[in-house]
Specification:
By secondary structure, this protein is an alpha+beta fold. It has four helices and eleven strands; from the N terminus they run αββαβββαββββββα. The protein is globular.
């Protein structure tokens, strides 16, 4: 937490550049986004950033009591709808979680096909630290860095360059009971049957990619 003040400066700059809306989402517990050009030669790494806005602490805890922790349950799919990885990462009140797409979210995929380049990321704000058994609880907010290519040259080999990045809020979504059950089951199957594959990893707070 000691470095959070330093980390908030670049986040504030991002907020101002995006018109003050970098983390301006509704009181939701379910978010979706996409990743592109991951693990691509010459492309920068993308980052999923999530903060705990303290809503859980305000809603369920009184003054003088410890603020509540939340977990970002993260589910990664490729662009063919295939489930690839899951994990649940702790985000303390007013804390910042930064997840590398290349190093943490797509480096240990269920199918064993490393270096997926495009896909979907789903995030559930949960009180439960187990991504196989969700307990949706509002309080997390997030942004995603997207890596875009300006040119593709074919068929003499694929060439994508130059690259530029944008950062946008995660999209608020509706988490149905069916969707929550499916996400939990997919994650459970990956952990049980993946032989070590199918899980992503969590960075420590106070560390930004």
């Amino acid at each position: 937490m000691k470095k959070l003040g330093l980390l908030l400066f670049p986040l504030l700059a991002i907020t101002l550049m995006l018109g003050g809306n970098a983390f301006a989402q509704n009181n939701s517990d379910y978010f979706v986004t996409y990743y592109s050009n991951a693990n691509t030669t010459g492309a920068p790494d993308a980052t999923l950033r999530i903060i705990n806005d303290g809503d859980y602490a305000s809603a369920y805890y009184g003054d003088g009591l410890e603020n509540g922790n939340l977990w970002a349950s993260i589910y990664v799919f490729d662009n063919s709808q295939e489930f690839q990885a899951c994990c649940a990462c702790l985000v303390t009140p007013d804390g910042l979680l930064s997840e590398s797409v290349n190093k943490q979210l797509t480096s240990n995929e269920l199918t064993g096909y490393a270096e997926r380049t495009n896909g979907v990321i789903k995030v559930v704000s949960s009180y439960n630290s187990d991504p196989t058994c969700l307990d949706p609880t509002p309080g997390l907010r997030g942004t995603m860095v997207h890596v875009q290519a300006t040119s593709v040259i074919l068929p003499a080999g694929t060439e994508k360059s130059p690259f530029y990045v944008t950062e946008t809020p995660l999209a608020d979504s509706n988490l149905s009971s069916t969707e929550a059950t499916v996400l939990g089951q997919l994650c459970s199957f990956a952990i049980t049957l993946g032989s070590g594959h199918g899980t992503c990893s969590c960075t420590q707070e106070d560390f930004d990619w």
